[in-house]
Specification:
- Chain A is of the alpha/beta class.
- Chain A has a single domain, classed as P-loop containing nucleotide triphosphate hydrolases (Rossmann fold), CATH 3.40.50.300.
- Chain A is built from nine helices and twelve strands.
- In chain A, the strands form three sheets. Chain A has a six-stranded mixed sheet with strand order 6-9-10-3-11-12, with helices on both faces. Chain A has a four-stranded antiparallel sheet with strand order 2-1-4-5, with helices on one face. In chain A, strands 7-8 form a two-stranded antiparallel ribbon.
- In chain A, α5 packs parallel to α6.
- The longest helix of chain A is centred in the middle third of the chain and has 15 residues.
- About 2% of the residues of chain A have low confidence.
- By secondary structure, chain B is an alpha/beta fold.
- Chain B has one domain.
- Helix content of chain B is 21%, strand content 42%.
- In chain B, α1 packs antiparallel against α5 and α6 packs across α7.
- The radius of gyration of chain B is 21 Å and the shape is globular.
- The chains are: A alpha/beta, B alpha/beta.
- Chains A and B meet through α2, β7 and α3 of A and α6 and α7 of B.
Chain lengths: 276, 404
């Protein structure tokens, strides 16, 4: 059966501030969608809300996975149902090795123990495909990884977990050209009727490697324009202003980043902070 | 000629000293509630066995290179020829063989008066004694595993002597076969350029009240690494004191502390720099659960004139329950300018962002939490060289985490 992710009139907020203001979108098996748009328009929030990040509250609308309402489902259950999010900022988890983690995840997803030999073979092949170091299984999860290594590790997990629907949140940022190609090839290898993909990016470069079927533009917490691959070319040449003009809006953002709001770090001298 | 009666009279002298000694004062904790004074010990001789009874076997994780020490008797040994050069003696062996080397050390120990009531209690009631000596230049590559078991109240002392240039790794298990009172001290001497890895796994049963005092003395260029796994099911006072008495001496105290149910665990760690260029690290990883109360005091003390010394300590504790309590105090007492020192303590819940990340790959919350917690304990787990013991250690924690 073709997997299907449906988002209907989705509204979501964080700390009482509404960020998503009615998103409608359907992604099916065999389809690659891309959501583009400038910073601060709610793209990453959409990815987090679909995955079920507890920081966000859905105030209206529905998320359906294969016709089942998952709007209220906890994140782990969504993952076991075949949803995957490659994160923009993957967490570092010292002390937990990549291989222990991924093996536990596969077991949770399939409900079966994975034969060790088969797992190692498959893991090694995926590591080689992404041109990562062969010591990766024994290293701690993302601990001390460079930005690019973390992104590749997300795609490695994608290959190993074989989800039905994957969301790739700015998987291209921080990757050099060679890495983009490697990651692009890996994602393309997943293409099939049983796999649907939603990419989020504000660069066009990754789209040279992964060709989307549908292109969406997000502004002010909504999808404001959808189209085919020709939309990318237009944005590439003309930017986003023409869309803003069409819609008659000046500020496309819903998230206004506070400037210089550097948080205090543990171990920072409290007195010095107070004096600043 | 040394007699049992002489031994008894030394112990009696200590009992007079009980009238003037006090419990250590620790926060607002009433030490009297631990009722350490109720200990009643007796000297009972047991024969060696060729096959361990099942009750004891179930406590043992690794049967290679072990000594089983029960109620003051070495009841079982299985050591290969690499351990031939080590001297391992019990109180009964020393008395039977009139072993002057050991008896005079014991006599010296029993004659010394100590201000700490718990140590005085240990000396007054001493009914279990183990002596381990590694002679000069002997390097033992394999790990010595010592199981100290009690089926009745125990006042035990282990004396470890590593002579110059020697090396040893020892894993010591404390286990109780019944609900008992357990008063344990160990005195460890690491002489010049010697190296000791001392892994202590305390897994005393429910209703066993324990005082555990471990003292280490580290001489010139010597190294002592203590790794303590404190997983007791009963109330415990654990007092660890390392004295860096030689130049360029090095010591680590790495501790995993698990406090659950309604237990109180008090852990005091004292790293005392008594020589220049001495290096001492304290590293505590604690987990509290249910209604447990964990009190951790770490002290790094550099005395005047001990220049070039380095004293570092860190404590991090994960609190898994709303009803558990934690008190962590990282102290630095420094009386010298030319030193390096640092300290810090952090208490918190399991990191929510890490938990979300693991769960976003389908891991159940409980499995994700366990992975994070074992990851947190990795710096200590990696010190345990025996795979069997490590597995058993992990299983004990796993079970504690799963118990509701």
């Amino acid at each position: 059966m073709k997997p299907k992710l449906e988002i209907k009139n989705l509204h979501a907020s964080v700390e009482d501030k509404e960020i998503l203001k009615g998103v409608d979108l359907t992604v099916q098996g065999g389809e690659f969608h891309v959501i583009m748009g400038p910073n601060g328009t709610g793209k990453s929030t959409l990815a987090s809300v679909i995955m079920g990040n507890p920081k966000y509250t859905v105030t209206q609308g529905q998320i359906l996975l294969n016709d089942e309402d998952i709007t209220e489902m906890p994140v782990d259950e969504r993952a076991r149902k075949g949803l995957f999010l490659a994160m923009q900022y993957p967490q570092e988890v010292p002390g937990v090795t990549n291989s222990d983690f991924i093996r536990t995840a596969i077991q949770a997803r399939t409900g079966q123990t994975v034969p060790l030999y088969k797992f190692i073979m498959e893991y090694d092949r995926a590591i080689e495909r992404l041109k990562m170091n062969s010591d990766l299984p024994h290293r701690y999860l993302n601990d001390g990884f460079s930005g690019g290594e973390k992104k590749r590790n997300e795609i490695l997990q994608l290959l190993m977990l074989k989800p039905n629907i994957a969301i790739l949140d700015e998987i291209d940022s921080g990757l050099d050209v060679d890495a983009l190609r490697i990651v692009g090839d890996a994602v393309n290898s997943m293409r099939s009727e049983t796999f649907g993909c939603l990419m989020i990016t504000h660069y066009q470069r990754i789209l040279d490697y992964i060709k989307p079927d549908r292109v969406h533009v997000m502004m002010q917490g909504r999808i404001v324009k959808s189209g085919g691959i020709e939309l990318i070319e237009k944005i590439d040449k003309e930017g986003y202003d023409w869309i803003k003009d069409e819609l008659g809006i000046e500020d496309e953002r819903v998230i206004i980043e506070e400037e210089n709001a550097r948080p205090s770090l543990l171990g920072e001298c409290a007195t010095r902070k107070a004096l600043e | 000629m040394y007699k049992d009666s002489q031994f008894e009279s030394l112990k009696n002298k200590q009992s007079i000293h009980l009238e003037t000694t006090q419990y250590p004062r620790i926060g607002k904790i009433k030490m009297e509630n631990f009722a350490f004074d109720n200990i009643k010990t007796s000297l009972v001789k047991e024969d060696k066995v060729s096959e361990l009874p099942d009750e004891i076997k179930s406590k043992i994780d690794d049967f290679e290179n072990i000594i089983v020490f029960k109620d003051g008797n070495i009841i079982y040994t299985n050591l290969n020829e690499n351990f031939n050069s080590i001297k391992i003696t019990s109180l009964f062996d020393a008395l039977d063989n009139n072993d002057q080397e050991v008896l005079s050390l014991l006599e010296e120990h029993l004659q010394t008066l100590n201000d700490d009531r718990l140590v005085t209690l240990n000396k007054t009631h001493l009914n279990s004694f183990l002596y381990i000596k590694v002679p000069r230049n002997q390097i033992i590559k394999e790990t010595l595993k010592v199981y100290i078991l009690g089926s009745r109240d125990l006042a035990h002392m282990t004396l470890i002597n590593l002579e110059t240039n020697s090396e040893l790794t020892i894993v010591e298990h404390l286990e109780s076969l019944q609900s008992i009172r357990f008063n344990y001290i160990s005195e460890t001497y690491v002489k010049d350029n010697a190296k000791l890895n001392y892994i202590a796994i305390d897994r005393l049963s429910d209703n066993t009240t324990a005082f555990i005092g471990r003292n280490g003395y580290v001489q010139n260029d010597a190294s002592l690494v203590y790794a303590l796994g404190q997983l007791n099911d009963g109330n415990t006072l654990s007092k660890n004191h390392i004295k860096l008495i030689g130049r360029n001496s090095y010591a680590e105290s790495r501790n995993v502390l698990f406090t659950d149910k309604d237990n109180t665990h008090i852990v005091l760690i004292n790293m005392e720099h008594l020589a220049p260029y001495s290096v001492g690290f304290i590293n505590n990883h604690g987990i509290v659960k249910d209604k447990g109360y964990l009190f951790v005091d770490g002290v790094g003390k550099i005395h005047r004139g001990m220049n070039g010394s380095n004293s570092q300590q860190s404590t991090s504790i994960i609190n898994l329950s709303d009803e558990a309590r934690v008190n962590a105090n990282p102290y630095l007492l420094i009386d010298e300018y030319d030193v390096n020192a640092g300290h810090g303590a952090a208490i918190g819940k399991v990191n929510e962002d890490q938990l979300y990340y693991l769960m976003s790959r389908g891991l159940y919350k409980r499995d994700a939490e366990k992975l994070i917690i074992f990851g947190f304990l990795t710096p200590i787990l990696e010190l345990i060289t025996s795979e069997n013991i490590k597995t058993s250690f992990i299983n004990t924690i796993d079970k504690k985490l799963s118990d509701d």
